């Protein structure tokens, strides 16, 4: 309560902005994920690893735009690319050379030969699923319980909340995440637990017998919407094997893992090659962006014109110029080495605190992403997350952070994202704050 009061007192201008915003902006925010109790924090500006809110509070940014700002705020290389492109025209709905250069760069990074652009992660997963459905001629989509792939109907299923009412993986029903999603669409999406390749194969076989074999499995290779849940050794290899055996398209949704955990994402880091990859977030250097990569076979349905993968702003010149600068000048191998170094430092710091104070939790992460999962046992899937993760500690840790100049994502399923502009100073500020939190809850 004291922490809530302290934050409320420090964010009076945000409260005022909220009162004003609610009169014109639904619920006072631009996206429902920006809501938090009792009011959202309105930001004014960002520079490198820091952000400032409308109250003038200066904070180290570990939220980083839900993982989009890997390059830090107002990066000069992105700024230059955007300014130069602006002078030459920002939108034609015709391809520019940057669109080609970026596709070549992504092909080299991911080892997938054919690319297309979108404007967000949701569009990337929506279009990838359509391509997989066209390629296989099937409708059913398989996903992982608790995974988030964006806000289009097909994937707003079995994400959480309602699924608690089932609690039985073998009698799985598909449930919508929020209202307005047609039941017919919900029934076409089927979920299986993460880190259980056997359950996936059994479900594929059962669906096949019912005459509704899945077109694709869409999954994050490392789950980044339950904190961070890494694949158990061998799991991704088995998934690859199973999907290949059953002729099911494997889509790695790398919207979050993508550029954050290595130059070629989880695909390269784990060494398992999917049929398709979806990217967004950290791709665009802070501009709305998205991309889909695929094998020649799968993407043939785009090339022969049977699938319309379209969008007025796809490959927008301003966006592809920013992506190009991001890939060529910012997210270099050295930058990724720096992110790995920083993440090792923050993970080591958090692990030390957890041990010193015997906290019920553990620190986990990869590349520029990580979190402390407040669970006495290891989380391997949604079921174990739901059963063991402490919402109370995670909410309290967020308040502690905010009150001590650490800007973090409010959701208990979220993780930190570092940026290439973060330094030891930022990392140590985070760990110090975490230690203060540990002291407070154990004293
Ligand atoms: N896929 C994953 C794994 C995500 O985490 C998200 C967003 O958080 C999306 C897709 C959707 O991306 P966007 O919010 O850009 O539509």
UniProtKB/TrEMBL annotation:
Enzyme Commission number, as recorded: 5.4.3.8
Note the Gene3D superfamilies from the entry: Aspartate Aminotransferase, domain 1, Type I PLP-dependent aspartate aminotransferase-like (Major domain)
User: Does Isomerase appear among the keywords?
Assistant: yes
The top EC class, named as a word, is isomerase
CDD domains cross-referenced by the UniProt entry: OAT_like (cd00610)
Extract the GO molecular function terms from the UniProt entry: glutamate-1-semialdehyde 2,1-aminomutase activity; pyridoxal phosphate binding; transaminase activity
The coenzyme or cofactor needed here is:
pyridoxal 5'-phosphate
Q: Pfam families in the record, alphabetically?
A: Aminotran_3
Q: Which UniProt keywords apply?
A: Isomerase, Pyridoxal phosphate
Listed InterPro entries: Aminotrans_3, Aminotrans_3_PPA_site, PyrdxlP-dep_Trfase, PyrdxlP-dep_Trfase_major, PyrdxlP-dep_Trfase_small
Q: Which family does it belong to?
A: Belongs to the class-III pyridoxal-phosphate-dependent aminotransferase family.
Q: Which PANTHER family match?
A: GLUTAMATE-1-SEMIALDEHYDE 2,1-AMINOMUTASE, GLUTAMATE-1-SEMIALDEHYDE 2,1-AMINOMUTASE 1, CHLOROPLASTIC-RELATED
Full protein name: Glutamate-1-semialdehyde 2,1-aminomutase 2
User: Which organism encodes this protein?
Assistant: Actinomyces slackii
